[in-house]
Amino acid sequence: MTALVIRGGQLIDPAAGVDGLKDILLKDGRVAEIAAPGKLKQANGAEVLDATGLTVAPGLIDIHVHLREPGQGYKETIASGTAAAAAGGFTAVAAMPNTVPVNDSPEITRWMLAPERGAAIRVFPIAAATRGSKGDTINDYAALKSAGAVAVTDDGHPILKDNIMRETLAAAARVGLSVIQHAEDTRLTQGASMNLGPMSFKLGLRGMPTEAESGMVERDIRLVTELRDARVHLHVAHTSTAAALAAVRQARRNGLRVTCEVAPHHFLLTEEHVGFYNTHCKMNPPLRSAADRDAMIEAILDGVVDAIATDHAPHAVHEKEVEFENAPNGITGLETALGLSLRWLHKEWKMPLGRVLSLLSAQPAALLNLKGRGTLTVGSFGDVVVFDPKAEWIYRARETKSRSRNTPFDGWTMQGKVRWTISEGRVAYNGKVS
Amino acid sequence: MEGVSHLLVRATALENQDPLIRDRILAKRRVALLFYESSTRTRTSFELAAKGLGADTTLVSSLSSSIEKGESLKDTGLTLRALGAEAIILRHNSSGAPWLLEAETRLPVLNAGDGMHEHPTQALLDLRTILAHLRPGVEIVNAETLAGVTVTIVGDILHSRVARSNMLLLPRLGAHVLLCGPKELLPELAAKAGPGIAIERDFDAALRQSQAVMMLRIQAERLSGLQLDLEQYKAAFQLSGPRLAAQAPTALVLHPGPIIRGLEITAGVADGPQSAILEQVKNGVAIRMAVVERALTANGTGGRA
Question: What is the CATH number of the domain that holds A318?
Answer without folding.
Answer: 3.20.20.140
